[in-house]
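Here is a typical sample entry:
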Amino acid sequence: MRWFKVAAIVIGVMIAFLVVSSVVGFLVEAVIAVLAVAVVVLAVKVAVNRKHVSWKRPDGEVRGPRYSRPLRRHNTRDVDDELARLKRETGG
C-alpha cells in the first residue's frame, strides 16, 4: 500500500507539472502574439498620423511632407567672397 501512495503522488506531480507547463507555454505565446499585434497597430497609426501613407490613394502612394518649401538660394557673390575668405584664413 505504501508504494501505491508513492506512485500516486509521483503521477499526480507529473500531471500537475504537465498542466502548469502547458498553461505557462500558452501564456508566453499569447503575450508574444499581443506584442506583435501591438507593434503592427502602432506602426499603422504612426504612418497614418504622419500622412506618409494614404489609404485613399491607389497602390499605397507615399506622399512627402506638407510643409516642403523651396531651398533658399544663396547670393553667388556672397558665396564667392566667403570661399575666398576661408581660403585666406586657412592658407589654401
The mean pLDDT is 82. Helices lie at 2-49, 76-90. The two ends are 102 Å apart (CA to CA).
